Amino acid sequence: MAAPLTDAGEFEIWLNDRLDNLEVDREVYGAYILGILQEEENDDEKEDALRGILSAFLDEDATEDVCKQIIQQWADYASRSASMKNAEDAEVQAIASMIEKQAQIVVKQKDVSAESKKRKEALLAQYANITDEEDEAEEEEPAGGNDTTGNEKSLFKNTNVEEVLHRQKQKREQAKEDAQKKKETDKMQREKDKLAKQDRKEKEKKRTQKNERRR
C-alpha cells in the first residue's frame, strides 16, 4: 500500500478547480479521488480507478486525458513534497546532532561535579564520620521517575499515531461510499433526463404531424 502524504493541500486545490471545470461534484468525488491516488501502488491501478469515476461524466477520449492529467499532477506534487521532506529531515538531523552534543557537554559537567562531591564527602567522612547516603538516595529517585514519565510519553505518542491513522482510514472509506452513492444517483438522474428529453421530442413530433394534416 502506498504511504499517504500527510498534507495534499496544494494538489487538492488544483483537483477541486479541475473538477469544477468538468462540472463534477468536488465535495463527493474530490476526497474519493485523493484517496485513490494515495492508496493505489502504480499508475495503471490509479488510472483504472479514476476511469471508473470519470467515465460517468465524460466521453472516452476526455476521460483518458483527464485521468492522465490528474496522475501527472499528483506525481509532480509527490516529487516536490518528497524533496521538501528530505530538506526538512536534514535540518532536523542537524538540530538533533547539535542538541546531542550539548547534552554530552552537560553530562560531562555533571560527572565532574559528582566526582568532586565524592572526594569532598570522603574527606569529611574521614575526619567527622559523616555520610550522605540519604542525600544520594534522594538524588537517584528522580532518575527512576523520569524513566516512567518517558515510557508514558512514548505510549501516549504511539496511541495518538494509531488514532490518526484509524481516522484517516475511516475518512477514506466514507469518501468512497459517498462517491459510489452519488455516482448511482447521478446516473439515475441522467437516465431520467434522457427519457424526459425523448418524451418531449415525441410530443413535438406528434404536434408537428398533426399541424401538417390540418393543412
What is the SS-derived class? mainly alpha
Span of the ends, CA to CA: 72 Å
Radius of gyration: 34 Å
Give the averaged pLDDT, no decimals: 76
Keywords: Coiled coil
Region (Disordered): 128-215
Organism: Oryzias latipes (Japanese rice fish)
Biased composition (Basic and acidic residues): 163-202
What can you see in these coordinates?
The chain is mostly helical. The chain has a domain at 1-99. It is 88% helix and 0% strand. It contains 5 helices and no strands. It has helices spanning 9-21, 26-39, 43-54, 60-128, 133-214. The longest helix is centred in the C-terminal third of the chain and has 82 residues, at 133-214. The protein is rod-shaped and about 135 Å long. It starts with 8 loop residues before the first helix and ends with a helix. Residues 1-6 have low confidence and may be disordered. Pfam families: PWI_CCDC43 (PF26091). Keywords: Coiled coil. Residues 128-215 are annotated as: Disordered. Residues 131-142 have a biased composition (Acidic residues). Residues 163-202 have a biased composition (Basic and acidic residues).
Topology readout:
Blueprint lengths: L8 H13 L4 H14 L3 H12 L5 H69 L4 H82 L1
Helix pairs in contact: 1-2, 1-4, 2-3, 2-5, 3-4
Short note summarizing the structure:
88% of the residues lie in helices and 0% in strands. The chain is mostly helical and 215 residues long.
